[in-house]
């Protein structure tokens, strides 16, 4: 299978990438890893007329802590995250997710930015971003902008990014005492998209009260979603097994799965319930360490 | 649209004119006539087309040839000098890590990348490490044994001679 005809352009700088897509118009698409886009092009689900390759732009691949934030460059590959000492030491939630994302060769090429920019609720990173209340930094024809994650996902494959906006950075809270995150997805086999996945991020204050809670879900809604009611239930309280079960029940009620080859709607709701409980327990355990 | 690309494949520099939409695997097999890199699923699932791109295992059915401009690529043909076996090839031979051999070039190149990051993997790490490479014949056990043997041999080679 080869994709339909298109014209390839290689951008050597961010400026060049933005102005290329601006001048080429709607039928131009950025390609970073190409591991979501190219499979779709081979299957002719996507037929862009122009591909602007942004993978060679320098300076957009990094992982560093700055102030209260962990900053991840948009072109950082999933493997670079997996092998990063900083991530291994302080951000186990990313390792949880990346190890269950695709396979090692795909992760060598697929980027974190692409995983989010694709706007697919089946991808794993969106749930983490929602749970951690990430901020997406994009650069476009009118300069830089910060987009809170709650305003980022608009619909199936639709995001707040304009056609000529490049996702350049992702900001999430820096790891600190009392915070913990965890992710798990149920998959039928390696490389499969989630039957259901749950990301949890909690922050405990000095006396063990939950000051912040985030719960994001994978592949149980058309648009990546967080579970506000479950988060609200936990915030400001000392978390007990009973509360954890209630949060799981709320997540199961609020998610919007559809029956498909991966399972029935009822099965997926039940998975969300169980996984929410497990990930809450795991995140709390990590927060206590 | 046509593009001129220059890249290094198995240490040799090649220049060619490729279409925007040409896939790297087709470039290697059809343009360079190197057929050690296989096409299995053609949908980035099976790993039969795995090559090393700047040292990293990559599925060449899901990579545009034009993007490999300036890159260094290793295919199974270039892993060891003609007539000799790389320790990973030797281990697959010794441990019967193949039956039909269709998956083998991809498995071996994936193993190079795996052992680079994790020279002493556990069995579970090996299984996760080759999880993007499918084998329809062996049942994987002998592949795992082969990778364990290769890891041991390659660790020995790295040790200074006593
Ligand atoms: C076999 C296989 C299995 C997979 N399994 C999983 C899985 O289990 N879970 C999972 O999460 N993912 C999975 N993936 C997807 C993989 O993780 C992708 O690599 C990733 O989602 C997209 O990243 P990319 O860099 O390849 O993006 P591309 O394919 O290059 O781009 C995807 C989309 O985002 C846009 N885009 C990319 N980067 C930017 C940017 N910086 N700024 C603006 N727009 C941008 C592109 O225009 C395009 O529309 C799988 C892929 C394969 C091939
Ligand atoms: S042929 Fe490329 S992964 Fe199967
Ligand atoms: S040896 Fe036949 S597919 Fe692996």
Keyword list:
heterodimer; A: 289 residues; Uridine Diphospho-n-acetylenolpyruvylglucosamine Reductase, domain 2; Uridine Diphospho-n-acetylenolpyruvylglucosamine Reductase, domain 3; Enolase-like, domain 1; five-stranded antiparallel sheet; four-stranded antiparallel sheet; 14 strands; 34% helix; globular; B: 162 residues; alpha+beta; Ubiquitin-like (UB roll); DNA polymerase, domain 1; 2 domains; binds flavin-adenine dinucleotide
Write structural notes for this entry.
The complex is a heterodimer of chains A (289) and B (162). Chain A has helices at residues 14-24, 37-42, 78-83, 85-90, 92-99, 104-107, 112-117, 125-131, 228-234, 241-254, 265-288, and strands at residues 7-10, 28-31, 50-53, 63-66, 69-73, 135-140, 143-148, 153-155, 158-159, 166-173, 179-186, 196-204, 210-218, 225-226. Chain A is α+β, with helices and mostly antiparallel strands and 289 residues long. Chain A folds into three domains: 7-52, Uridine Diphospho-n-acetylenolpyruvylglucosamine Reductase, domain 2 (2-Layer Sandwich); 63-173, Uridine Diphospho-n-acetylenolpyruvylglucosamine Reductase, domain 3 (2-Layer Sandwich), CATH 3.30.465.10; 179-287, Enolase-like, domain 1, CATH 3.30.390.50. Chain A has a five-stranded antiparallel β-sheet with strand order 4-5-10-6-7. In chain A, β2 (28-31), α2 and β3 form a beta-alpha-beta unit. The longest helix of chain A is centred in the last third of the chain and has 24 residues, at 265-288. The mean pLDDT of chain A is 97. Chain B is α+β, with helices and mostly antiparallel strands. Chain B is 34% helix and 17% strand. Chain B is built from five helices and five strands, in the order ββαβββαααα. Chain B has helices at residues 24-31, 87-94, 104-117, 123-129, 141-158; strands at 2-9, 12-19, 50-53, 56-59, 72-74. Chain B has a five-stranded mixed β-sheet with strand order 2-1-5-3-4, with helices on one face. In chain B, α2 (87-94) runs antiparallel to α5 (141-158). Classes of the chains: A alpha+beta (289), B alpha+beta (162). At the A-B interface, β1, α2 and α6 of A face β4 and α3 of B.
